[in-house]
Amino acid sequence: MDRIAPFSAQKLEAACKVLADTELGLTGSEIGYLLQDCGIADVSPGMTKWKRLFNALAEAQNKYQVGNHLIMFINRALDPVNYARDREAFEWRRSELNVVLAFSGFGVREDGKVVRVDPEST
């Protein structure tokens, strides 16, 4: 994977709020599993889901000075095989992440993979 510039705190937070949404987001145990699977330290497992995810991804981003960890997490979190019985959750997460990621020049395809796109400005 190419080296990706770090995401701003606002963009990282927005992505985490989508991924850890109370209704249609990942569960706490899914977040823990995916962080471990990505090799990202779960620095605050006792916090609310989005803050837990934000802190873990921000820590990795600050340590390595790249935004690759967010993209890796999204690629694994949106693996279509995990949504065989819940296509609605997949489509909601993909759609919401596309809004957030578009400002950084990324988008999530129908196969759940993050790709580069022309950045949005509005």
What does the model show?
By secondary structure, the protein is mainly alpha-helical. The chain has helices at 9-19, 28-38, 49-64, 68-77, 87-102; strands at 106-108, 114-116. Strands 1-2 form a two-stranded antiparallel ribbon. The longest helix has 16 residues, at 49-64. It is globular, with a radius of gyration of 13 Å.
Write the layout of secondary structure elements.
Blueprint: H1 9-19, H2 28-38, H3 49-64, H4 68-77, H5 87-102, E1 106-108, E2 114-116
Antiparallel strand pairs: 1-2
Helix pairs in contact: 1-3, 1-5, 2-4
What's the gist of this structure?
With 122 residues, the chain is mainly alpha-helical. The protein has five helices and two strands.
Query: How many β-strand runs?
Result: 2
Mean of all residue-level pLDDT scores: 96
Unreliable parts: none
Strand order of the largest sheet: 1-2
Oligomer: single chain
Strand residue percentage: under 5%
Structural class: mainly alpha
The secondary-structure element order is HHHHHEE
Q: What level of helicity do the residues show?
A: 40-55%
Rounded to the nearest angstrom, the distance between the terminal CA atoms is: 28 Å
Largest sheet: 2 strands, antiparallel
Determine Rg (CA atoms, Å): 13 Å
Count of helices? 5
**Envelope shape:** globular
Descriptive tags:
mainly alpha; two-stranded antiparallel sheet; 5 helices; 2 strands; globular
